[in-house]
């Protein structure tokens, strides 16, 4: 089983570095070294900055890919209309366990990110800058960077800047979660969708974008749109930061020009020559097969054309030795545990989908597969934030990408391969780790005793669904850690004593030549070597 990714993994570059320039000289570019490497930066007016963003085709690098120039103009328009100074936010909340590109930039090139954000603040006339981070190392680095520039949250300063710490969770990086945290609330989606450009922090128009996006803006402002366009594809110029992990010899963050073959990036990280699948875009992304991975190049358009996605820049191959559905189930349980609990599709739908996938793997047959498809379809487009949609995308992509394995589990009771755990998930000490990990226990129904009272489905609807006849439609449901209490309560409340929790079978010893077991713990370095 793979260890969780360190905060700052190995960093590589294909071609000439832009965002990673100077990484071969020092571990962290402080302000003095940053200016020596990148040089000074002149401010731009709002219109010139918007034109620059449009000329370099700059899109958000946090996953959604929204055009930055369009967002900048929307914030400026709302600010002028309302007569309110806007707020600029750097979203460095990287809570996905497969992503480290923003963490690398926040740790090693914090001033490049600040350059882009301060350009935007100057152009918009903003007087408040907020930096949202999720990790100790990124908080330390960004606080030091603000101090090096003489920026703080003290009254009377022309620009007040502060760092906001959010939990290391998937939902914490969602734009509305960051705004809610910056406003003093919990780092959770508010349950309603509002445009940050209209009303964000303190009710003011808010320009919120990803850390890499601001770094790209700073590079474009320094070298100009023409020179920026000499790197990468004409339609998507510049470079991209990718996090490559999964079944690789060397997990890494790599800066590559757009247009570089994806197979070259996989080879660089030591991926299997013929992976049975490559997850693109992270845990809200899409699977592609080895043929598509061979043909695709690193670009939003190329990956979309083969059924993949660039998303947050996470690339995760898996080899032929592991069960892909078992790997997906590990991620599914984690995604279900990451719910903010504020809407039905997230609170009920995702655990039900994870339970459905478990039923498929455990011999539930065609009925289990059909139930999984139904619940996944029901989740799509109904959530209060993007987490249910992204998770549903992962479920649906898994079902369409591994049809042979799916048939083996549905028709033959399994594919015959163990789940080796190559997709990284948080390790011990992660604040929701206990909820994210399956307990190994199963909820089972004794059909000779069940009388169809339905109390179990009322207590734990995430695991037990009633059929048309009023009896539980599925049995042998896997119990995630965060649902153990309610599952035990359902067992105690069953009037017919038909419900039971089955304990996991004893762990088999690792096979000869298989992946070694991880030692417990394993702390992270604040600043790794990263070279």
From TrEMBL:
Its cofactor is [4Fe-4S] cluster; FMN. Gene3D superfamilies: 3.10.20.600, 3.30.70.20, NADH-ubiquinone oxidoreductase 51kDa subunit, NADH-ubiquinone oxidoreductase 51kDa subunit, iron-sulphur binding domain. The keyword Cell division does not apply. Residues 502-531 are annotated as: Disordered. It comes from the Bacteria. Residues 520-531 have a biased composition (Gly residues). GO terms for molecular function: 4 iron, 4 sulfur cluster binding; metal ion binding; NADH dehydrogenase activity. The keyword Magnesium does not apply. One of its GO terms (biological process) is cellular respiration. InterPro entries: ComplexI_51kDa_subunit, Nuo51_FMN-bd, Nuo51_FMN-bd_sf, Nuop51_4Fe4S-bd, Nuop51_4Fe4S-bd_sf, Soluble_ligand-bd. Keywords: 4Fe-4S, Flavoprotein, FMN, Iron, Iron-sulfur, Metal-binding. Residues 325-369 form the NADH-ubiquinone oxidoreductase 51kDa subunit iron-sulphur binding domain. Belongs to the complex I 51 kDa subunit family. This is Oxidoreductase. It comes from Streptomyces niveus. The lineage of its organism: Bacteria, Bacillati, Actinomycetota, Actinomycetes, Kitasatosporales.
